[in-house]
Amino acid sequence: MNPRVAVPVLASVFLFGCGETALQDPPEPGALDTLSQGVSVNTNPGFLVVYNVNYENLPTAEEAPCAGDWKDLIYYMKDQTYSPDVLIVHQMSGAGQAANLAQFMQENLPGLYDFVIAEANPEPQASPCGPPKFYQTNAIIYRTGRLQPITGTRDTWQVFKGANGSCVMNNQSRSIGVRMAFTDLITHKKVILGSSHWPTNQEGPSSDPGCAEANIARTDAKVRGTGTADLIIWGVDSNESDRAASGDFKQWYRQANSRISGATTYRWNDPIYEACGGGRACLDNNGTVGPADGARIDFLFFNAAASSSTGHTVSYDEGDAAARQFTGEDNGALHYSGHRAIRARIHYP
Predict the structure, then answer these.
(1) pLDDT of 253-301, one tens digit each?
(2) Nearest CA among 252, 191, 255, 254 for reference residue 223
(3) Is residue 30 part of a domain?
(4) Which residues pair with 307 in a beta bridge?
(5) What is the mean pLDDT of the chain?
(6) What is the pLDDT of residues 217-256, one digit of tens each?
(7) 138 beta partners
(8) How many domains does the chain have?
(9) How confident is the model at residue 262, as a pLDDT?
(10) Are 54 and 338 in contact, with CB atoms under 8 Å apart?
(11) Contact yes or no for 133/91 (Cβ under 8 A)
């Protein structure tokens, strides 16, 4: 008997409905004797530990031409002070894969994990990586000992793509976002979490070819659509960088980031921008795709009334080193994803 396994019981609430059934979470151990690492659950009432990543359908070594080693990121988490309270993910194959991820986290980290998913059984789509990536959707993995879903607050929404100079509604499962509100079981405060993935099409208006301005407006309305909360946190693979080739911040990002004066509309903060103090070279070093100095197209946002600390983009080398530490081996040629993860502590106002 494994007292830590909660996923098969709890996850079923969100597979085919709208999360309307009240959950009764089992007691959660703080740190089990079976865990040899120093990582512990976060019981600090001041902040939540949050990660965001496009996990690319949990790539494995057998999945050529898009092979990977997804477990490296979990081993990295295992080497941190706290296990995640929240892991916002994009590009899951469906409810089964989200459950497998939550299960692996339970086996390697202190805490019990469950998930909320946008599409339990997403529609297929073409992919240059072949069958392992034909099915894609978005999800929120959360630690049940810290966060309890609030009945009736789950919602999903589609976003826009660029087409023939206009922004039109996309039709892919992977661009359906998901949002849900939670109660923090330590502070009894309300937390809203969201996960979104925007299309790749760059055929919109010349002022907004990726329709990022249209999508930040829609995503903002949907994430905030369940009312006010003490913390509002969402992650996105935007497929749109924060800056233009000139180095200037793009309009959509200026609208999103409350720290950039002159254009803020949506009152969000970005923990990587905060960690960098807005410095361009530092932001360059926190690229999330390609090499270390790549584009930032993956973002973790939180309501501007709150604050962040320890904002960090998890390098592939860090994942490789953690895998070697906990398993004794690693294939350094394989990455945990084609996107680098973002980690931060999000502090209550």
Answers:
(1) 999 999 998 777 899 999 999 999 999 999 999 999 965 556 999 999 9
(2) 191
(3) no
(4) 347
(5) 90
(6) 999 999 999 999 999 999 999 999 999 988 899 999 999 9
(7) 90
(8) 1
(9) 76
(10) yes
(11) yes
What confidence tens digit (pLDDT) does each residue in 317-346 have?
999 999 999 999 999 999 999 999 999 999
Residue 262 is assigned to a structural domain of this protein: yes
State how far the Cα of 296 lies from the Cα of 304, in Å rounded to an integer: 20
Alpha-carbon distances, residue 162 vs 40, 126, 157 (angstroms): 44, 18, 17
Nearest-5° angle of CA 185, CA 186, CA 188?
Answer: 65
Distance in angstroms (rounded) separating the CA atoms of residues 90 and 235: 9
Between CA 308 and CA 313 the distance in angstroms is 14
**Domain contains 35:** no
Which CATH number does the domain housing residue 132 bear?
3.60.10.10
The helix/strand/coil state of 161 is strand
Q: What share of the chain is helix, strand, coil (3-state, %, to 5)?
A: 25, 30, 50
- Assess contact for 322 and 79: CB atoms under 8 A: yes
For 161-172, give one letter per residue: b (16+ CB within 10 A) or e: bbeeeebeebeb
Report the predicted TM-score, pTM, of the whole model to 2 decimal places.
0.91
Single-letter residue type at 79? D
- Residues of the domain holding 74: 7-19+42-347
Q: DSSP per residue over 268-312, as a string?
A: EE-HHHHHHTT-HHHHHTT-SBSSTT----EEEEEETTSEEEEEE
Cis peptide before 59 (omega within 30 of 0): no
- Cα dihedral 88, 238, 257, 270, rounded to 10, equals 30
Question: How far is residue 288's CA from residue 13's CA, in Å, rounded to a whole number?
Answer: 33
Does a structural domain hold residue 27? no
